[in-house]
Each structure stands twice: as C-alpha cells, then as structure tokens.
Amino acid sequence: MTKIVASVLEKNNLPGAIFTSFCGGTEIGQAIALDIRIPLVSFTGSTRAGLMVQQQVSARFGKCLLELSGNNAIIVMDDADIQLAVRSVLFAAVGTAGQRCTTCRRLILHENIYQTFLDQLVEVYKQVRIGDPLEKGTLLGPLHTPASKENFLKGIQTIKSQGGKILFGGSAIESEGNFVQPTIVEITPSAPVVKEELFGPVLYVMKFQSLKEAIEINNSVPQGLSSSIFTKRPDIIFKWLGPHGSDCGIVNVNIPTNGAEIGGAFGGEKATGGGREAGSDSWKQYMRRATCTINYGSELPLAQGINFG
C-alpha cells in the first residue's frame, strides 16, 4: 500500500515519503505520541488507549484528534416504518460483523411495537449467511482475531450474569476462522455491560414508553458517536436533532447509525473523543489559526505624553 501511494505522489512531483506506513505494536504509537516534532496526533482506537495518547501528547503541548469507541443506538418510535427500520437495524448491527465504530449496539423500541419488531428482526437474523465475506451472498464474516472471538464469549457470559436474555445467537461457531453467531439480547438499559462497547455482532434490545425516556437511554452511555431515530413525525425529529435530543456527534433520522457518514464531519462526543474527520471540518483539524494585523501607514498610535522628536 505504501509503495502504491508513493508512486502516485511521485508522479505528481511530490515526495513519496509524505505517506509512510509502519506495522508494529504500542511502541510505535508511544514514539509518535511523545515526539515533539509531531504537532498533531490523530488516533483511532479504544477509549482506554485514546486517553493515554491524549495525556502523553498534551503533556508536551501537542494537539490530539481522537476517534474512539462508539456505543450507538437506534430508537424506533411507534409511528415508524417498521420494514425500513428492521432492514436498517440488520445492516447496522450485523454488517462487518459488528466491528465498526458506527455499528448499532443498542436498539430502543417503543412498547407499542416492541414484540412485532422483535419477531420480524429475529426472522431476518435467521436468514443471515455466515462465511467468507468475499463470497456473494455472505452477510456476516469472521471476527478479526482469535482474541476477538474470546472477548465475544466472555461478553456473552457477562451479559447472562447481568440478567440479559439471549433471544438469538450467543455462541461461537465451531469451524476454521473466528466466526460467531449474530446475537440479539434483551436487557435493561441500566446493566453495566450495556455501557461498554463489545466489538462484535451483539445487539442489546430495550423498551421505552416516551420519547423523553428513549433519549435518556440513548444518552446514558459514556460514548457519543452515532445515533438514529425512526419516526414520521416532524416534532419528534426536531426534538431529536435539538439541544434536548441526542448528545452524539452523528444524529440520523430514518437511516441507520452507519453507512451515511462518508463525506460528513465524522466524529463523536464524550468518551468518543470529540474529534472530527472528513467533510467540512477535516481541514480545520490540521491547520494552525493565526490572527494577522497589518499596518499599511507610517504612523502608529502610542501612549499619550511621549515625544519621539
């Protein structure tokens, strides 16, 4: 990849070394974070690692651009287009095996459509084809590493210990590769595990009665990356988009939490880091602000009572 990018740069009369890729562990990240020659460090990863990077960079008065964990929710109101919402939840929760910062991890359903929605969602989960993601028709590929698979299994045990009910999936698949079942969990919003990001195809489902309650559930986690609501009512939409609505950096209506972020000012609030990449804000992050005043004359107002001759 480095050689390909370098060749493009050189063909355009730019040094190939503008882009450099390193492969390694934490020692590379620490070296970058501590190097005073690097005025800005852009980091994408977990909240825990991002906090360490921020502390190290800030200690030398450098600047940080952080894109950290997401714990994204989709709210479905009782007036929503159910079929549209079911398709969106499936795409957002199962796509890329739940290994996306904008993956939907929490599904917040109005009590009037709760069971109807769940029944339809379970039926489409049964149709998910698991296997090689390069093969046509495969929706769910493997987790990234054996450690990810182990974390999935540990997460399921934690979910059960905190009162979560497995409605679908919940197991690893005994085969070559790090494959697990797409999983739906019925759980209370107050369960500690719901506040954390389990990086896999696990969807927490919970019930609400009022819009106020739904927004409170959406905002109740430390992370604040992406959020969505499904409704046809303008008053709900504007409440959701306003200061008393979602506290996330990405606030969607009638689309999932992922898929539409390309081209926008991507980033989140709270423990997601507050950074913004891409879109209209991307260039601002990498620029230095300077206030400039130019005197075009030959005189300068000075303190009263001074005679310069």
How would you describe this structure in keywords?
Ald_DH_C, alpha/beta, 7-stranded mixed beta sheet, oxidoreductase, 9 helices, Ald_DH_N, aldehyde dehydrogenase (NAD(+)), 309 residues, Aldehyde Dehydrogenase, Chain A, domain 2
Tell me what the structure shows.
This protein has 309 residues and is of the alpha/beta class. It folds into two domains: 1-68, no CATH class; 72-253, 3-Layer(aba) Sandwich (Aldehyde Dehydrogenase, Chain A, domain 2). 30% of the residues lie in helices and 16% in strands. It is built from nine helices and eleven strands. The protein has helices at 2-11, 26-34, 47-59, 82-94, 114-125, 146-161, 211-218, 234-241, 282-285; strands spanning 40-44, 63-67, 72-76, 104-110, 165-168, 183-186, 202-208, 223-224, 226-230, 250-253, 269-270. Strands 5-6-7-4-3-9-10 form a seven-stranded mixed sheet, with helices on both faces. Strands 1-2 form a two-stranded parallel ribbon. Strands 8-11 form a two-stranded antiparallel sheet. Helix 4 links the parallel strand 3 and strand 4 (104-110). Helix 4 (82-94) crosses helix 5. The chain is globular and about 90 Å long. The relative contact order is 0.14. The mean pLDDT is 92.
